[in-house]
Amino acid sequence: MKTSWFVSVCVIGLLSAQQVTAQQDYQADWLRSVGYAGEAAATAQVDPAGECSTCDTGDSDCQTCESGCGLGTLCVDPCYQPRFTFFGDVLQLRARDVQVPFAVPIDGPIGTPVVAQAGRVADVDADYEHGFRIGGTFQLDCDAAIGAMYTYYRTDNEAAVATDAPLVLRSLVSAPVIANADSDGLEAFANYDIEYQIVDVDYRGLIACNGRSSLTWLAGVSYVHLEESFTSSFGVNGVNAVASDIGFDGGGIRLGLEFERYARDCGLLVYGRSSARFVAGSFDADYIQSETPGDRVQVYTGIDDDRILSILDLELGLGWQSCDGCFRTSLGYMVSGWFNTLTTTDWIAGVHGNNYNDMSDTITFDGFVGRVELRY
Q1: Upper half-sphere CA count for residue 294 (Cβ side, 13 Å)
Q2: Which of 33, 98, 231, 314 is the most buried (most CB within 10 A)?
Q3: Structure pTM?
């Protein structure tokens, strides 16, 4: 046990020494590239422990660490690429363009197809929910790396509405061709869930870099899983229930760009990330309507639909990194558009109209992303 512990400490020490030496070499090259040679470069200090070092107070070209990580303290160069990076993101996103109208108050005979609305439409819509991303990269050389990332997000939403006689609630999700007294009710409930999972593996290359900014391209493959689940129930003399389930699985390519810009005399940075996925896969959708007491299954149908999804992501934000570049944290705003998807609203409308052509819509997600990143 003691021997294993001693060997582990020695290995960690050697890796740390190699990291510091590589960092110093990059910083020396960077100083020469921006003109900080001669006396200014000679007086600048690099702390092997990764902390800022002060300069001689008599040299006006040098800066101290009192204002953060000054240029004279040789903060991490954006062109320097660590061997390993690991990150974890917290997502606070909201799905938009996904609301499902499920009931409306009416004034008139129940069970008839022609009604007079007597109130606002009730729908179930998505709200902000948590998700996460985890991933990392491994540097192949000074200009290239491979990376992997896993993303998970789920939103669970419920809605309920009630009315008093003589009004009743007309179901907007039940098949109208078999409307009867049990299709309407005084109370209605709906639940709507959306979940997606994404696995990305990519190759990254450095396009351009100087002392304060860097631009990186990436290309890779993606696996995408999307699921939408909807249920509703209406009750007066019985219970009329509708359930819809939509699933998608597919794989494709991912292309992207990442940009970073650093402040001159502190660890602050701004960043931008964009990517486009083109995923080929299949939608599997089911719809079932039942009545209790009565027909257990009034309507049942399903469809398989092959198509290509386009998923476009854009993220902008601010961040901060430690003076040695081994720790980063950032906060950004993200927008994601899923194009050519099959939404629950379109699927239910297709079942009601017996028309399954051109069922294509867009789902968007937007919200905030917080990241913690370790680099060494």
Answers
A1: 18
A2: 98
A3: 0.78
